[in-house]
Task: inverse folding
């Protein structure tokens, strides 16, 4: 019992440091840091040793990212601002904590709200969402990989108000939600996400073309059906989402290459793009003009 108590005390100490490390400069809401401190990372990473993504190191386009193996299963390796592989061969990871701290702060899940997460992985950030909405809230996870969905379901046992289904988060109708958090990149917002948003609901997803670098786009549903507030929270790159059309012609990649993502102020529907157009997605476009 003493060893178990000592291990739990050490994990708690590590989480406290880790939470301050990733949230201190990335989240204004103190509840974000508290959530990182409360949720242990070990169950979601699985048994060690672990494969850690070497930040910004790529061997080649063909060989993909470079991972470094930890020498043992000391949980201290998990409580750093690193991506931990769930499936290194496919490039599926538990994403970078500091980026998610920034994103969760921008998405601002509140106690009692309903949140949808598309792409749960093993459920670590699903659990953080559950911490933030509390037992009066609901978290609906969608994970297209059945094995990962099963892992998420097991890992979410301490948060019974959070559930996951092994199905697409794009093709099917989604429940009404106050916030939608997407953890796989796509070249456009899926119609299912937009339709799920309640008034003033928030959608945050990685807008990107294929595996190219893109940005986390935050959209808030407004009263006007033709223009909603939108802004980029951060540059990002995620694994591509299944079920959305490709960026034919590479227009989105060109838009990101030109930069100025901080100028985006709105997403517009059913209007002809004007001089404020940052990117034209066909039936939607991003504008530097306020809605």
Result:
């Amino acid at each position: 019992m003493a060893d178990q108590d000592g291990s739990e005390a050490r994990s708690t100490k590590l989480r406290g440091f880790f939470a301050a490390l990733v949230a201190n400069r990335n989240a204004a809401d103190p509840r974000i840091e508290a959530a990182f401190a409360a949720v242990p990372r070990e169950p979601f990473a699985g048994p060690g040793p672990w494969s850690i993504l070497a930040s910004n190191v790529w061997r080649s386009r063909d060989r993909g990212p470079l991972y470094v193996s930890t020498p043992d299963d000391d949980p201290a390796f998990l409580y750093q601002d690193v991506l931990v592989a769930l499936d290194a061969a496919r490039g599926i990871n538990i994403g970078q904590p500091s980026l998610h701290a920034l994103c969760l702060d921008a998405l601002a899940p509140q106690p009692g709200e309903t949140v949808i997460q598309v792409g749960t992985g093993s459920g670590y950030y699903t659990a953080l969402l559950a911490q933030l909405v509390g037992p009066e809230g609901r978290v609906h996870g969608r994970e297209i990989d059945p094995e990962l969905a099963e892992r998420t379901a097991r890992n979410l046992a301490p948060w019974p108000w959070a559930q996951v289904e092994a199905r697409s988060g794009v093709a099917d109708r989604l429940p009404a939600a106050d916030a939608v958090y997407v953890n796989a990149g796509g070249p456009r917002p899926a119609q299912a996400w937009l339709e799920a948003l309640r008034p003033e609901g928030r959608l945050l997803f990685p807008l990107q073309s294929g595996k190219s670098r893109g940005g986390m786009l935050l959209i808030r549903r407004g009263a006007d059906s033709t223009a909603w507030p939108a802004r980029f929270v951060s540059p990002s790159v995620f694994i591509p989402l299944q079920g959305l059309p490709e960026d034919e012609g590479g227009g989105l990649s060109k838009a990101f290459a030109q930069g100025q993502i901080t100028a985006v102020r709105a997403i517009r529907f059913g209007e002809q793009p004007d001089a404020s157009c940052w990117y034209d997605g066909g039936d939607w476009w991003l504008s530097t003009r306020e809605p």
DSSP finds eight helices and 14 strands in the chain. Residues 44 and 122 are 6 Å apart (CA to CA). The radius of gyration is 19 Å.
